[in-house]
Design goal:
This protein has about 350 residues and is α/β, with parallel strands linked by helices. The chain has two domains: about 230 residues, D-Maltodextrin-Binding Protein, domain 2, CATH 3.40.190.10; about 100 residues, D-Maltodextrin-Binding Protein, domain 2 (3-Layer(aba) Sandwich), CATH 3.40.190.10. Strand 11 and strand 12 form a beta hairpin. The longest helix has 20 residues. The protein is globular and about 55 Å long. It starts with a helix and ends with a helix. The relative contact order is 0.18.
């Protein structure tokens, strides 16, 4: 692997491991000073979760009277377990995680929006892949089987291209490993989210052949908490949503300012090495922000789209039977913002 790219990936991996090792905390209901008690909010270190990261780094949680600790998780699957078992007060993650557990009886609520789905397929220029249908028989890196991205990849992207999962040589790996595999030629293409899409492109020799947000936009990331928190600590949950709303407005309206706050979460230093030389880390992260759509609202159309993804879960035998997502959606905070 190219030494420069290896340094980039080592930096990203080191950051994730470091924060994953040091994140800890205990929930408290009150600290006696008029502010809400300490809250623990889960997140995954991807651009999809930027509203939670920016709310912390820009001091927005504190501005809204909250004492918040962010806790890093390796996947939404692990994060949702933290909410179910009471380790976390809330989290930003894929809606399918809430659906999977709620269908088993877990007390969960989707209370706000965060980010519309962005996932690109990057293919090596020498792979002969110019469209999704060209992936047949090729080596392809993607995320964890059964994740929101994987459900949409199989139920929408592959289906529209006339492919089945078995037509493609699937490699289920982390984004960092996916980038390494592209660089080494172990895989011909990869399904990536931000900022790993931008980081992968720094090496050159890659073409984007598909982006799900352009073809089938859907609310990928949402804010999830427990029904108990909504019922008994509504004011606190509303403050969390207020802070993340303000973060989302910065991400959408002033991505350069937002990037200044959060780029250290994704970069080891001030620059990334690319095939054309050094690139400012903050510029790479700003591009990653601008490539996406963040939205704190969930419209009726968004709810219908979450239902469609949920129906795909039944088709793919992830759920045993049809599940009505409206049963776990609480938009009371959003209605107050109108």
């Amino acid at each position: 692997m190219d030494l420069k790219i290896r340094k980039i990936l080592m930096g990203v991996t080191l950051f994730v491991l470091l924060f994953g090792a040091t994140a800890c905390g205990k929930n408290e209901e009150s600290n006696g000073d008029g502010k809400s008690g300490k809250l623990t909010i889960g997140y995954v270190n991807v651009m999809d979760d930027a509203p939670a990261m920016l709310a912390e780094d820009a001091g927005l949680y504190e501005k809204h009277g909250l004492d918040v600790e962010l806790k890093l998780f390796g996947s939404g699957t692990d994060l949702i377990k933290g909410i179910v078992n009471g380790e976390l007060d809330a989290g930003v993650l894929g809606a399918t995680n809430a659906v999977s557990w709620a269908a088993k009886g877990a007390d969960l609520k989707i209370v706000g929006g965060a980010q519309m789905g962005y996932h690109s397929i990057l293919a090596r220029k020498d792979s002969g892949i110019n469209s999704v249908s060209d992936l047949k028989g090729k080596n392809f890196a993607s995320q964890k089987q059964g994740s929101t991205a994987d459900i949409v990849l199989n139920g929408v992207t592959f289906k529209e291209a006339g492919l089945k999962r078995s037509d493609v040589n699937m490699n289920y790996v982390t984004p960092t490993v996916a980038i390494q595999s592209l660089q080494s030629g172990k895989v011909d293409a990869a399904f990536l989210f931000e900022p790993y899409d931008r980081i992968a492109r720094l090496q050159g020799n890659l073409d984007e052949i598909y982006e799900i947000g352009e073809v089938w936009p859907f609310p990928c990331m949402v804010v999830i908490t427990s029904g108990d928190k909504v019922k008994n600590h509504q004011d606190t949950i509303y403050k969390v949503l207020d802070a993340q709303k303000e973060a989302i407005e910065m991400l959408e309206n002033d991505p350069g300012k937002a990037a200044e706050y959060i780029y250290p979460r994704f970069a080891e230093g001030e620059t990334f090495e690319s095939s054309d030389g050094e690139v400012a880390s903050v510029d790479v992260i700003q591009e990653a922000i601008e490539a996406q759509t963040f939205n704190w609202k969930l419209t009726p159309e968004n709810v219908d789209q979450i239902q469609k993804v949920t129906d795909l879960m039944v088709e793919q035998n992830i759920l045993d039977s049809k599940f009505n997502v409206k049963d776990i959606i609480d938009l009371s905070w959003q209605k107050e913002k109108k």
